[in-house]
Design goal:
223 residues, alpha/beta, 5-stranded parallel β-sheet, 3-stranded antiparallel β-sheet, 8 strands, binds cytidine-5'-monophosphate
Length: 223
Amino acid sequence: MPEVPVITIDGPSGSGKGTVSARVAAALGWHILDSGALYRLTGHAVQKAGIGFNNPTQAADIARNLDVEFQDGQILLDGEDVSLAIRTEQAGNNASRVAAMPEVRAALLDWQREAARPPGLVADGRDMGTTVFPDAPLKVFLTASAEERAKRRYKQLKEKGIASNIADLAAEIRERDERDSTRAASPLLPAEDALVVDSTGMDIDTVVETILRAARERGLGTA
Ligand code: C5P
């Protein structure tokens, strides 16, 4: 049972979890855990090491020994700025391949739990409410239609100067959803006690306010 309050925000890729989690954490003055970044970093490091994606033991070793620094919005891996490199669709796919390995998930578990520090943590991911923080007092499952998520992803990538097209993105999103929700290890599913928020056609302020209201109702973030 974590003593530090945790709000988990899980959901499929492109559901707006990243933005929503950052806004909720800022409103409460809490820390944030971007667990997807850990899988992206592991995928990146596995590719760089050239060991292929069929080697869970070595991939878990890499995950356990990641040399990462989070610095002013930048992410350094072995001292190299990989902030942009880990955000490409290719990096997302590599992340999802290592994320399907139970050995890698186990290697990243303690690291994620250690992120729960006072005054509180907003944990963004796929299995934050089901596996990593099962006792969290507020669990949110944020979703949106695949089309809406592809459009959002397109906009996001464009803002970062990364070229893409919506049809390819929608296909990749469906493929990744399928792999994430059918894998045996921590599949992407809402926790039984999760508040499910479908953000299709909802603006970001409304989503954030919905979550903050649920937090207030549970007495979170008011201390
Ligand atoms: O959230 P993001 O798109 O950065 O995550 C990249 C990939 O990492 C996801 O598609 C998923 O396969 C994996 N992931 C996971 N569990 C988490 C966070 C991310 O399996 N808690």
